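Batch manifest, entry 17 of 40.
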Amino acid sequence: MEVKIVSKKLIKPIVATPDSLRKYKISCMDEVNATMNVVTILYYPFNQFYTYKGIIKTLETSLSRILPRFYPFAGRYIKEHHTVDCNDAGAEFMEAEVDAYDLKQVITNLEPDYLNELLPLEIGAADEITDPVCAVKVTKFRCGGIALAASVSHRIVDACSMGIFVSAWAEEATLREGQSRTIHPFHPPRTFLARIFLLKILESGGPEKVRRLCARGSYLTPRPSLPLGRGLATFPACNQG
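Output type: structure tokens
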């Protein structure tokens, strides 16, 4: 399946991150995580009530509005300091298209190679200063359906917090005047593990032991209610040895 990149841009937070939050120190457990991104792909069939340009505008605008609440997502990870520089460099937003396939052909087969083509970044494209912490890719299919893929560094999120981010983004995209937000903003990690505990983990197996906890396979779940219609969400799992 050939996926053609149409455009690529950086979406910056609508409000600048204050200096007091500029340095985001990751937790000691996140330091030994595998170098990878947590990803999800949301599928939406063609919906005659929404235009493609309108969808893109809504996604870009709502992402810009949600980034101040998830401020490390617009920063860049500094590997040697185990810190995210929350410099508002922006989340990467890509548009792509597939001319030879319909959305139904992809979601009925779920071939790993097809899924990888829909991702904005490779699973292991993390930890470098040039790697965006958060990236999004919208792929339009021949039938008019779309795949919305999101990728966030595993240094910052796990599958659960990725779900919170996507749900908060969906809520922002569909928020009406007078409605209040129900999902809480992002908070730094608490000191829930002492360094001595981390040393015990390293002594008993090190990062490889942590990596083996990663699940393998793909998982189908109901997608959040973005203004795009009905669909499915796929979470490609990591494939670490």
